[in-house]
Amino acid sequence: MATPIEAATIGQLLRTAADSFGDADAVVAGGTRLTFTELDQRTRTLARNLIGRGVTKGCHVGISFGNDTDFIVSLLAVSRIGAVAVPISAFARGRELLRLLRYGDVAAILTARTMMGTDQVERLAAALPGLESARGPFLTLPDVPNLRWVDFVNAEAGLPPWASSAQYGHPSTPVSEALLEAVEADVLGTDVALMIHTSGTTADPKGVPHLHDTVCFRARYLAERMQYRPGERTYTSHVLFWIGGLTMSLFTSLAAGATSVWCERFGAGEVLALIEREKVTRLVIYPHQVEQLLAHSAFATTDRASLRVADPRLVVGHEGDGIRTPEGHRMALGMSETFGPFSWGSGGANHIAAIEDIQPGLEVRVVDEHNQSVADGETGEIAVRGRCVTPGYYKRPKDFGFDADGWLHTGDRGLRDGNSIHYLGRLTQMIKTAGANVAPAEVAEAMLALNGVREAYVVPVPDDTRGQLVAAAAVLDSGSGLDAARIRAELKRDLSPYKVPTLVAIFESEEIPWTPTFKVRTHQLTDMILARVAQSAPR
């Protein structure tokens, strides 16, 4: 297997990949195909345009696209000149989107006219007060005081006065290649390359910055660990605006000389056609999506001979093997704060995963409530420190999530077993639905903002397909006129679709179960929601 690229910055990674892999496909998405050479050239052109627009080192630039080449080119162009790429969730809307842009100090946005079926002009105008009446492309909006412009990529016409159009294929400024090279030369591995936003235990978004060194080291490590190689063609359903798509496909493929294959959103029929047409060799998808592929009418007739790393039931010749994790895709533990997986393991006793293989340069331990390492056989919170851990949360105190010795407390519960750690689940109330994190506090706050909702409680409900579902209990003001369906409809305006509760039940205030220390009995409330929803279901 060829040795993955070792680079200090994203710009160096791109240049080396272009020199090493040249005319091989780097990215295939939405009918567009870019070789490694073309990807380097396309990002250089946009980088020169950005410099001409005044984007400088450290400037926060929002990237708002689906899983396509525009997202990839934009993110790489921004980061290679030392600016900070800030991927924006395609699901964020209304107040949620406004909060993300303001909290993240986003100075510019690169987006498309439409994305995943949504008109982006309407989406932004609905979220940002004063934008719809703004007259110039230079923005001065008090609710997003640092935002200066929004560029719609390759838009020909029909843009409002507050928008402008970035042309990716042609330099629109006199910025020279020499200046671009000088700018790139000043970018260091210790500079921030990008910032991911993730849900937290409070309503505010958590900005998680990562360094160029982190991105490049993680790409090389994962390429080696997961045995990526030149000529590999990988499809993942993980989105690019969160960690999964960046780590498990994009940067890992760039470092290995592999091709990353994308479609804007997962659809079983489209993905099966993609596997056959693009000769996909590796699938990185969620378990419920595997089931959708297996159940699709085109599955039996799809040419899947190219697949070598996937659920065995999808691989030709292994359909009868049952569910089994392929080599290289064993149990992995990671998070946004560590830029993806940092440790690997296998099934242990009672099917509890044993984490045994820790990334070089990283330390992992299990601590008790007094921050002391637990003894062998005891449980506690998993803590990590070292290379690839975020330097700290954006605009949060230095000790937010970290202790005085630099250990990041993950919120994961673990059991120490000699040199291994068994992952036992989450300590926090975070809801994990189909791979996405949902903070109950954020959903509850959105519910309380609705006229007529007096109390709101958000809990997880187990689900065989998605892991967990978001469920909510609401106590209403007398005469509010609200019901479960109306509450869900109202929340869809301000929350990402995956954050909108799947189940909503209405209760009287005295029905909510409390402990003697005034904490909601979460498990009991979950059962009550399920029972009430079942009672109200049509018979």
Provide structural commentary.
The chain is an alpha/beta fold and about 550 residues long. It has four domains: about 10-210, Rossmann fold, CATH 3.40.50.980; about 220-330, 3-Layer(aba) Sandwich (Rossmann fold); about 330-430, Luciferase, domain 3 (Roll), CATH 2.30.38.10; about 430-535, GMP Synthetase, Chain A, domain 3 (2-Layer Sandwich), CATH 3.30.300.30. The chain is built from 13 helices and 26 strands. The protein has helices at about 10-20, 35-50, 70-80, 95-105, 120-125, 175-185, 210-225, 245-255, 270-280, 285-295, 440-450, 485-490, 520-535; strands at about 25-30, 30-35, 60-65, 85, 110, 115, 120, 150-155, 165, 190-200, 205-210, 235, 260, 280-285, 330-335, 340-345, 355-360, 360-365, 380-385, 410-415, 420-425, 430-435, 435-440, 455-465, 465-475, 505. Helix 7 packs across helix 8. Residues about 320-330 and about 345-350 have low confidence and may be disordered. Belongs to the ATP-dependent AMP-binding enzyme family. Keywords: Ligase. It comes from Mycobacterium stomatepiae.
A few lines on this structure:
The protein has 539 residues and is of the alpha/beta class. The chain is built from 13 helices and 26 strands.
Give the topology:
Layout: H1 10-21, E1 25-29, E2 32-35, H2 36-52, E3 60-64, H3 69-80, E4 84-87, H4 94-103, E5 108-111, E6 114-115, E7 118-119, H5 120-127, E8 149-153, E9 163-166, H6 177-185, E10 192-198, E11 206-211, H7 212-225, E12 233-236, H8 243-256, E13 259-262, H9 268-278, E14 282-284, H10 287-295, E15 331-335, E16 340-347, E17 353-358, E18 362-367, E19 379-386, E20 408-417, E21 420-426, E22 431-433, E23 436-438, H11 440-448, E24 453-463, E25 467-476, H12 484-491, E26 503-507, H13 522-536
Parallel strand pairs: 1-13, 3-4, 3-5, 5-8, 8-9, 12-13, 12-14, 25-26
Antiparallel strand pairs: 1-2, 6-7, 10-11, 15-16, 16-17, 17-21, 18-19, 19-20, 20-21, 22-23, 24-25
Helix pairs in contact: 1-2, 1-3, 2-3, 4-5, 7-8
